[in-house]
Every structure is written in structure tokens, then in C-alpha cells.
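Hi support team,

I submitted a single chain yesterday and got back a structure, but I'm not sure I'm reading the C-alpha cell output correctly. Could someone confirm the output below corresponds to the sequence I sent? I've pasted both exactly as they appear in my results page.

Thanks,
R.
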Amino acid sequence: MKKLISLTVTAALLLAPLAYTINAPALNLKVDAVSAASEEAPAATAKPAATAKPAATAKPTPKATAKPKPTAKPKPTVKPTPKATAKPVATAKPAATPKATAKPAATAKPVATAKPVTTAKPVATAKPVATAKPVTVKQAVYQDGVYVAYGNAYSKGTEGAKITIKDGKITAIELMRTNPKIIDANARDNYSGVWVAYGLMKNRLLGQTRDSAAAVDAVSGATRSSNGWKLAVDRAFERSLEVKPADATYFAGDHMGVDPEGKYAVFASYDANKLTAVKLYPLNANGSFVDEKAYTAEQTAAITAITPVLLANGSSAQPVAGYEADSKAAIKAFWDAEQNATINNTSAYIDGFYSSYGTARSVGVERADVIIRNGKLVDVKLYRLGTNLIDRGATAYAEVVKANAPMTAKLLANGSYIANYDEKVDGISGATESSHGWNQAVERAFEKALKVPTAGQYFDGKFAGVDNASKVLLLVDVAADQVTGIKMSLFGTDGKLIADDKLTPEQKTLVNQLTAAMLDKGVEMDYVNGQETLSAAAKAALVDALTNASKVQGTYKDGTFTAYGDAYDKGTNKADVTLRNGKIVNVTLTRVGMNMVDLGKNAYVEVQKALPQLTASFLAAGTREGVQQVDAVSGATSSSKALKAAVDRAYGKAEVTEANKAAYFDGTFIGVSTDKSVNVMVYVKNGVPVNMVLYFLDYAGKVKGLNQLTDAEKAVKAEIETTSSGSGLHKYGYRPAAFGSNDDEKTVSAKVVEAIKAALETAGK
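Hi R., thanks for writing in. Yes, this is the structure output for that exact sequence:
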């Protein structure tokens, strides 16, 4: 009997303490959410209805007197600096200045209009009964939802904020510092002053109203980024207004846009209602601005020809003769900038990262990881997964490997998935089936990003599911949220699928029993007596398949993530963790020496014994939280703790939305020079490298004694170690460069810098 597989049943299964259970996806738009009551401002300081648009506030200020006049049609802009003058009308722009909104005219005590000189004793305005309770904090001025906006752009990118608004307050927030392609940059790629600012600004903004967010203090050392984030937050609130301002179309300022293929960036300057200036910049293959001094004659000519056309016609511009390809890219970039500038941005999608699958087959499936901005595809990575649903990479079919790059280019040129896909036209020759699977995966990723979700909790189609120990493969047919068919296959001890005609009679019977049980009761299936292990694997595979079919984006990215435990003067512990749907499906644990080379049989005997035990335990635990509950192995307690920390850090790298955004993990990390003669140990505290210790290694990777060092090595060691403060950023913790008073010292310090960069990479989030 075919059963309806409900989300409630799936969620219930995910809570069960089963080693094989795969976590169902969870919304990843809320990060460290706080209750609507936390940091709540008094009702009088809530965003007054008048700052959104008086017409939508149901007449909050009755005409109690003739003077002073109520605040008339204030503009919800970003730069409000009202002055307390004799005419309260001067409070026209209170949006970003909390002082102006501390006691809005619409509240019980309009004394907040600063005692106008012209009406020394306005008796009628003392405490008008009619205005005792004109509005409440929960008045529907701002629409609940997720909103993304950006601050003013500059040559290195811009600041952005993705906020969740509930009852007029920020309940979740993700701060972005983008690269020139307007994609959120890795925190450690930014200026060092920004590293700590992420966490501080996030904590300061969570729970705030629009006005109280505008009053938040900037972080010292990251003033521009702090103010950029505040501006982005204010603009996000503006976009959430139920009634948009009638007298403004754009956010005044400089806005940036990039075409999906990354050929051009456009800077478009707007005042409230019109475009005022345009600047066009070519991008290089790395996604950075080409220096104007390095422009080719062709680039200069193209920019000269296209820029005035954009200024005159904007996104409606037609390609310039002789520069058609450049024009099309520039127009797309301008359109992107225009969307970022538009208050009433009508994109149907929520900007962000999304991942999805194409149609599954017995030989594997395609996956696409995408980034969407303003409803356009701005980044995409394509994968071909094997029967165990792990990326095959270069081991996939040769034609599929070759098809990856041209299909990626085709999708980016299209700016989305390809509607009405035609394998003869849109597919890559030799890999038409994979091309179709990738396109389908991108299409489903877009559907996950919809602001208004489509009906149903699952996509229709065929989806694969594998338990995390790779014992069972299921191909599950889903239609209208129902499982309509299941094909079950077993893996052999060699990791390959056993052909149906090669199954033993007992295996065939078991497969039939489990298939019938899943079709009958879904994830609440009964286990087959005596076959509890395979029964649990089948159930986990079904959960995995339904998770892959889900329209909800999960918390973690799929893939393999490498991280390290805390190091000491003998080396460190490494974990390569492969995740799917937040579940550990493969893990490799390694003990490395000071030269970062696997110690293998040279590791302590207790550690050698512990590695396979911990590998099995981590795989059985299956989740981030489960691994932390694994008992340490006797005789290898320190390594057990370090490897558990490494797994946790691998999960940290896999987060779609970082719970605690920082440049580095806290802890102790090592790195070596290219020739493995130098080791640097870096201590990270509060996300900042604060201390460094330098070691020189012999050919066997052993640490040299001080008496074995040359004068140059001693001098460099002293420089590195005496410039540590123990609390603030280390002198060489940000963009280290070689140094020295002579050639020998410069040669040594160059190797040390290599090791520092490697250590920072192991510490990096």
C-alpha cells in the first residue's frame, strides 16, 4: 500500500537516536534568532507610522490643535537629521536618527516636538485625550519576512545585510562584506578590522527596530563597514514597508551591479528618483576590477562607447554596434545595480545560497550549488555524484567531466536555469543526460529560493537516497507529496551495487520485505526481524531521499570539508569530513607531525589504535552534536578531543549561514613552509591570531634545538615571537611579508611567511 510521507513523520524520525538517521533540511534563514521581546524598545521609540507613510497609519495624529503641526509626510530615508526648530515640520526625515523618533508625534505625549518657540504654552497639545493610544508597536508598518539590501558600493565591493523581520524587529541577521562580484567574501579575505566587527555588529543589531538599529554604535576600526551594514539594514526595513514611499523610487547613493558571467561591473549613482551617473569597469578572470592603467585599447573603446548609452537609457539600452557582447554584459550589470538601488525590488526570490539535485538514476545523480541575487544566477558549481551520492570529481565519466565547464558557462550566460530545456540545443554533446540533470538541479534550487513557496513540501520526480554507511541505495518516486515507487539496491563489501540478478535468495527476500514495508508505512516502517541493521539502513536511505526531494534548503552544504584540532609541539590532528544533508557520510582521521605529513605508523601506538575506533564511532554518530558525545579512546584522550574539535570545525566550514561569523576558529594551529623546513604555530583568540611560535625542522620533520639554529634563524625567530601581544592582532597575523636586515634573514623570513600563511589557512573558517 502506497503511503503519504508527511513532513511531520519525517521530522519525527529525525529526532530518533538512530545511527543511520539522516537529518531533514531545516530553514537556514534564522541565525541566533532572539525573541521579539528581547532588547525591546519602549513603545514610544518604535518606528512611528508616519516615517513609513502617513496614509497607511490610519490617522495616528488627530487634529487636536492648530499649533504645533504634526510631522507631515516624513520621508523614510537613510540620512535623517531633524532639527528642533519652531516648526516641527523640520522633522521630515527621522528614519535613521533615533533621536527624532524618540517620542513621535503620534504618541501620547507630543511634547517630543521640542517645545516650539512660537507656541510657548500650547495648552491644547498638553495631553490630548484623542491621542492617548494612537498606535501600537505591533501596527503593521513593516511586513514580516526576509529582506536583503546593500549599502553604498565602492571599488572593493559593498556591505550587505540579510535580515528577518518579525513584528517590526530584527529576529535574524546575516552580515555580508562582498567582493567586487557582490558575493559574500570569506571573512578573512577582508580587512583585519572587519574580522571582529561581524560578531559585534550582529549582536548589536539583533532584536532592534528600524530606529534603534540606526542608533547602534559602529565598531572601532571598522567604521565604514559598520555604517555600511547599518545602511543596508535601514534599506532592508524600507523594502519591508507595507506602503512604499510615494516620493522616492531609489535609495540615494552609489549602487553596484555585476553581470552573471562576471565580465563587467557597473556603478550607478541615484538620487531619490533618477539616475545621475554611471561608471563601467571590466572585471578580470579572478573577479577583481581591472586597473584603469591596464585597460587595453579595446576595453577603453568599449567603455567609452557603452557608458553614455547606459546613462541615457539604463537597462533599456540597446547593444552598441561593434560592441554587442560587451554591451549585453554591461546592460545586465546595470540592471543588477538598478535592482539593488530600487526600493520596491520585486524579485520573486530571496538572495542566497541554494543546493538541489536533478533526476536520480542507478548510476548516480547531478547536484548544483548556486548563489542567487535579484532573481539571477550569479554563481554555480556543478557536481556528478556516484551511486553512493558522493561527488566523483575527476573520476566521473570523461565526457561528464569535460561537460562541467561549458555547462557552467551556459547557465551563467543564461542567468538562471534554461527554460524549455532542449538536449540537442542546450545540452553538452556527449553528456546530454548530465546536462539535463544539472539544469534541472538549478531549476529546483531557484524554486527553493522563492519568497512565496510553491505548493507541496517535495519536488515531483525520482530521487536517490543512501544511508550514511552506504549499505542501501533507494530510488524513490515522488508525486504530489506521495511516495509512488521505491527501487532498493544493496551495496557489496567492495562499495559497488550488487546487480539484481546477483542477489542471493535471502537478499532478494529481504529487499522485497523492506520495499513493501517502506511503501506501506514510509519512515515508520517496521524492522524485519533479524535484519535490524539493514532495516535501519533502508529507513535512513528513505529519509535521505526525501530530504533530497525537499523544497527547503538545509543548514549545511554538501561536500568534503577539512579541519584541524588544536596543535602542540609534536603536530596536530586532521579530519576530512564528507557531509550530505548535514549527515556524516564519510570521514578520514589523520595524525600529522610538525611537518604536516601523516605520521602513519610513526604515530603513538595508542593513537594508531584510536583512529579506526574513532572513525567508526564518528560515522555511527552521524551528526555534529552526536560526534561530541562520543567517548574518548583510552590512552588517546587528547587526540580524541582534538579530532572531535576538528569535526566540529568542519561543520563550521559547511554552514550555509554561519552561526558565528569570524575569520578564524579559536585554538592553536600549525603550518609549514613549502620545503617543510619551517613550522609556525599560531594561537587564535576571539577570532584573531594573537601569538606565534616559530620552529625550524630537520629533514625528518623533527624540531631543531636552539643551538642548531643559524644567526639568521635566531634573529627571525626573535622577531616573530617578541612581536606577539597575547591579546591583540599579531604583527604578522594580517598579510605577512618577508623582512630582514640582510639577505640571509630575508631568505629565512620568506619561508616563515609561507608557514604563517599555511597556519592561518588551517585556522581559517
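A quick pointer for reading it: Residues 595 and 676 are 6 Å apart (CA to CA). Let us know if anything else looks off.

Best,
Support desk
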